Give the backbone structure.
Amino acid sequence: MSAIVATSTAAAPGAAAQAGIEPLLRVEHLTMRFGGLVAIDDVSFEAKPEQITAIIGPNGAGKTTVFNCLTGFYKPTVGRLTLNAPHGRFLLEQIDGFRIAQRAKVARTFQNIRLFPGMSVLENLIVAQHNKLMRASGFSVAALIGVGGYRRAERRAVELARHWLEKVQLIDRADKPAGSLPYGGQRRLEIARAMCTEPVILCLDEPAAGLNAHESHELNELLLWIRAEYKIGVLLIEHDMSVVMGISDHIVVLDYGRKIADGNPEQIRKDPAVIRAYLGEAEEENLPPEVAADLGLKK
Ligand SMILES: Nc1ncnc2c1ncn2[C@@H]1O[C@H](COP(=O)(O)OP(=O)(O)OP(=O)(O)O)[C@@H](O)[C@H]1O
C-alpha cells in the first residue's frame, strides 16, 4: 500500500475550519426497538464532511443497528436521519431502504464479509455499478446488443473497477475468484466495491476485524487516503482501538443503546464514562491490553 502512503497524511479540515460547517450526516433522536428490546435509545450525533467519525462501544451496544438504520436495512422506530449531500438533502428514514444506496449515495461494508465469492474480483466491482449500467442500457436490450451509450458506460465501469483494484493492491488478482483472496484482501475488496458506487458517505462495519497489525496499519492508510482524496465522510464501527484512535476525527461512544460520550480521540480517551463502559464491573486487568493502552490506562 506504499503508493497510498505518500498522499495519506493530509489532515482533515481543522476544528476551526469545520465549525459552522453543516454536518454531512445528522442523526436526531434515533430509537430502534425490537419488540421489548431497545437496541438504540434516543441517540443523536453528527458526522462532518471530510471527517472520519467512529462509532464505538462494547458488544451489543447498538453500533451495527445504527448502520442498519442509516443504510435502510431497518426502518427506525423513531428518529430523523438527515444526509446533506452535495447532490441534495435526504431524509434517510423516509426513503425506501433499497433506494438509499443509489439515491443518497450511502455505501457500506459488512461485519461479516459479503462478497460474491464465486465471481472474479473484477466482477464484484462491476456488479457494484449495476445501477449505473442499467440506466445506461435504458432498461432495454441495449446491454445485450451493446449499443453506444451502454458500451461507454461499461468501459467506464471497468476503468473505475481497475482504478480501485490498483488502489487496494488487488489488480494482480482481478481475474481470480473473490473467495480465493486472503481475508485482508477480501476486506479491501469490500471497501473498493463500496467506493465503486461513488458514495458521499462510506459506512465501514469493523473493517479491521481479523486483520493482523500490518494489515490494520495499511487499512489506516487506505482510509486516510480515501478521506483526503475523495473528500467524503467516513463512518467507522471498529473494536480495534489502534485504528479508531489513530485515524478518527470524531468518536461517538454507545453503551446499551445510549450515547455516553461524543468528542475527539483525546476527549474520549479520558472520559470516565467510556472507561467505565469498557471496564464494566470487572477489574482493569480484564480490559484487553490494546484497549487499555489506547484509553491511557496501561502502558
Ligand atoms: N434484528 C434484530 N432483532 C432483534 N434484536 C436485534 C436485531 N438486531 C440487533 N438486535 C439486538 O440489538 C442489540 C444491539 O445489537 P448491535 O448488533 O447493533 O450491537 P453492536 O454494538 O453492533 O454489537 P457488536 O459489537 O457485537 O457487533 C443487541 O442486543 C442485538 O441482539
